[in-house]
């Protein structure tokens, strides 16, 4: 397309391409604009569907999480991405890495299970600890709570990718970056033309 | 992988506290070259598994160690004390003949799946029928 070709050439040619772009914008009539918006909406819906699909397949309300603290170093560092599953029949066993939420807090914590006591009917209570922490997590649990239960578990860590989650952390710490990124993505999708 | 253990329980008001000393001899490289190009570290842990009247299954991690890629893969640990308190949820350790210690490890890759592997040997540790009040730990 004219826009893509202009980007490659350079300097003066680049400015001419920008003029082309604005020309295009002015010439786009309403129908084309609606078409572009629909395209954009479809992309967003597909992304949401994929995310919901993952939630269903893995059984976890949050199948992909970003590690936020260094409490599991040297295995996981801040910014690593974890893939979770939360199958109902999967037993919780000592040594597993689980992601759990303390009642009343939003932030999930990724630590290792170090003690379990399970009754015959399957009721289980367990204790966790971060590999890099000196003490177990009792200090992190709710006031008076000494054990975690199955309902507190968001998922079990099954796989991981290093560094990839850094993007989410940067977007959280620097909201301007997030808006800039969204603006660029939005502009690209709205203005991109199928030739 | 070999473990030798000596153990006793101490009286506590509500739950039994177990004390275990152990030796571990391990040669990790023997286990089909576990440190391949994608392995960043191994998280080794010794866990005790047993059943009691209160709970059908109990597992308590007594000790753990992180082995990074490049560390010496042979372990000769003698007379190790458990790193974490071996509390039972109740009084199920006294006289419990069937406490099994197993060495397991979590393979942490540079990227990819996180498998948990249980070692093939395990050692049974019977706890005596009485509480020990004189020994210091």
Automatic annotation (TrEMBL), chain A:
Recorded superkingdom: Eukaryota
The main location is endoplasmic reticulum
* Catalytic activity annotation: Cleavage of hydrophobic, N-terminal signal or leader sequences from secreted and periplasmic proteins
The UniProt record lists the Peptidase S24/S26A/S26B/S26C domain at 56-142
Membrane topology reported for the UniProt record:
Single-pass type II membrane protein
**A biological process (GO) annotation for this entry?**
signal peptide processing
| Job description of the protein | Catalytic component of the signal peptidase complex (SPC) which catalyzes the cleavage of N-terminal signal sequences from nascent proteins as they are translocated into the lumen of the endoplasmic reticulum. Specifically cleaves N-terminal signal peptides that contain a hydrophobic alpha-helix (h-region) shorter than 18-20 amino acids.
Put simply, this protein is called Signal peptidase complex catalytic subunit SEC11
From TrEMBL, chain B:
Could you tell me where this protein is found in the cell?
A: Endoplasmic reticulum membrane
State the Gene Ontology BP annotations: protein targeting to ER; signal peptide processing
A Pfam family (short name) is SPC22
Indicate yes or no for the key word Transmembrane helix.
Answer: yes
Q: Which UniProt keywords apply?
A: Endoplasmic reticulum, Membrane, Signal-anchor, Transmembrane, Transmembrane helix
State the GO CC annotations. Answer: signal peptidase complex
Q: Which domain of life is it from?
A: Eukaryota
Give membrane topology per the record. Answer: Single-pass type II membrane protein
Primary localization class, coarse: endoplasmic reticulum
- Name the family the entry cites: Belongs to the SPCS3 family.
Entry function: Essential component of the signal peptidase complex (SPC) which catalyzes the cleavage of N-terminal signal sequences from nascent proteins as they are translocated into the lumen of the endoplasmic reticulum. Essential for the SPC catalytic activity, possibly by stabilizing and positioning the active center of the complex close to the lumenal surface.
Q: What is this protein called?
A: Signal peptidase complex subunit 3
Q: What is the lineage of its organism?
A: Eukaryota, Metazoa, Chordata, Craniata, Vertebrata
GN (gene name)? Spc22
């Amino acid at each position: 397309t004219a826009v893509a070709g202009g980007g490659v050439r350079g300097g003066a040619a680049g400015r001419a391409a920008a003029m082309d772009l604005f020309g295009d914008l002015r010439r786009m009539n309403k129908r084309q604009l609606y078409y572009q918006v629909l395209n954009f909406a479809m992309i967003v819906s597909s992304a949401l569907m994929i995310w919901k699909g993952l939630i269903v397949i893995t059984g976890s309300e949050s199948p992909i999480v970003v590690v936020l603290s260094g409490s599991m170093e040297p295995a996981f560092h801040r910014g690593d991405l974890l893939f979770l599953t939360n199958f109902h029949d999967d037993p919780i066993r000592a040594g597993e890495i689980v992601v759990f939420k303390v009642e009343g807090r939003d932030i999930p914590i990724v630590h290792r299970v170090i003690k379990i006591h399970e009754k015959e009917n399957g009721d289980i209570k367990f204790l966790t600890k971060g590999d890099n922490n000196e003490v177990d997590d009792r200090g992190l649990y709710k006031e008076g709570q000494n054990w975690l239960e199955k309902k507190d578990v968001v998922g079990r860590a099954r796989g991981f990718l290093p560094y990839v989650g850094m993007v989410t952390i940067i977007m959280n710490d620097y909201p301007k970056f997030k808006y800039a990124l969204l603006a660029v993505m939005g502009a690209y999708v709205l203005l991109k033309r199928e030739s | 992988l070999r473990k030798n253990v000596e153990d006793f329980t101490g009286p506590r008001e509500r739950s039994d506290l177990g004390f275990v000393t152990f030796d571990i001899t391990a040669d990790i490289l023997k286990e089909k070259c576990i440190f391949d190009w994608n392995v960043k570290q191994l998280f080794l842990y010794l866990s005790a598994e047993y059943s009691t009247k209160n709970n059908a299954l109990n597992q308590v991690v007594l000790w753990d160690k992180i082995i990074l890629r490049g560390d010496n893969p042979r372990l000769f640990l003698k007379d190790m004390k458990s790193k974490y308190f071996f509390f039972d949820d109740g009084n199920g350790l006294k006289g419990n003949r069937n406490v099994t210690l197993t060495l397991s490890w979590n393979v942490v890759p540079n990227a990819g799946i996180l498998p948990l592997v249980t070692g093939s040997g395990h050692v049974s540790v019977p706890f005596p029928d009485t509480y020990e009040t004189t020994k210091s730990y």
